[in-house]
Amino acid sequence: MWKALQRAVPEFNISMVEEAQNVLEKYAKSKVTFVILHIDIVGSTAMSMTLPVERLAPMIQTFTQEMSLIIAAYGGYFLKYVGDSVLAFFPVNLEDKYLPCSNAANCAHSMIKIIRAGLNPILNEYDYPEMAVRVGIDMGDNVVVQYGWGTCLSAVQDKQVVIKSHFDILGYTISIAAKMTIFAKDNKIVIGQFVYDMLDDSQKSTFKVLPIGSKVWNYVSNNTGDIYSLYGSTLKK
Question: What is the band of 146 on the pLDDT scale with cuts at 50, 70, 90?
Fold first, then answer.
């Protein structure tokens, strides 16, 4: 953050992207269970309207870089940036769903702690607005799709160039994780029923069910046939 606000471009470890792509390649053209974590910045639209680009860009760059590092520390993988949001995935071993769910929840708590105690004091010192985030986490089946493959003719010396494939995740879980994030308060986390059920009692005690009406949240659990329950974090700021 110091470097970014002093007009130095934050370093990005490209190996994190490559590692995630290598993991996804193993699941290409197949359905796989992942825990999906979606984190976005609260009020980013307002910030984009009030801050000049040279001040907004370092904030977004640093946010995405720091969140990517935390994801890796908890055994997750950075998937992609979507505007002011970061998407990550945690592979699920069907014999042990607890660990990736627990890691994702702990990762989210650490993200918020670092924003509040690490990044915001620096932003204050440089007369920037404080940053707040929201996190959504869910677990379910996803499809890994492959984009681009083969060779092409380069415009330089007519050489054959191999086009490396890019892998992405599509599916219901990605959509749900992003949509549930809107129900999180500033610096809070929302998790889906599937994730909540996998947590131990101590972790469950940090969440409570959200009283959301079916008119604004009508997604149905494919396990119970009832409205899919969401749980919000209760830890104090």
Answer: confident
Q: What is the pLDDT of residues 98-136, one digit of tens each?
A: 999 999 999 999 999 999 998 999 888 888 888 999 999
d(CA 90, CA 99): 9
Q: Lowest-confidence range among 155-164, 206-215, 217-226?
A: 155-164
Domain count, the chain: 1
The CA–CA distances, whole Å, from 230 to 37, 108, 110, 153 equal 14, 16, 20, 50
Looking at residue 74, which CATH number applies to its domain? 3.30.70.1230
| DSSP label at residue 170 | E
Q: By the 8 A CB rule, do 138 and 195 touch?
A: yes
Q: Where are the beta strands (DSSP E) in the chain?
A: 31-41, 77-82, 85-91, 133-147, 151-153, 160-162, 166-170, 188-192, 207-209, 230-233
Q: Domain range spanning residue 191?
A: 2-233
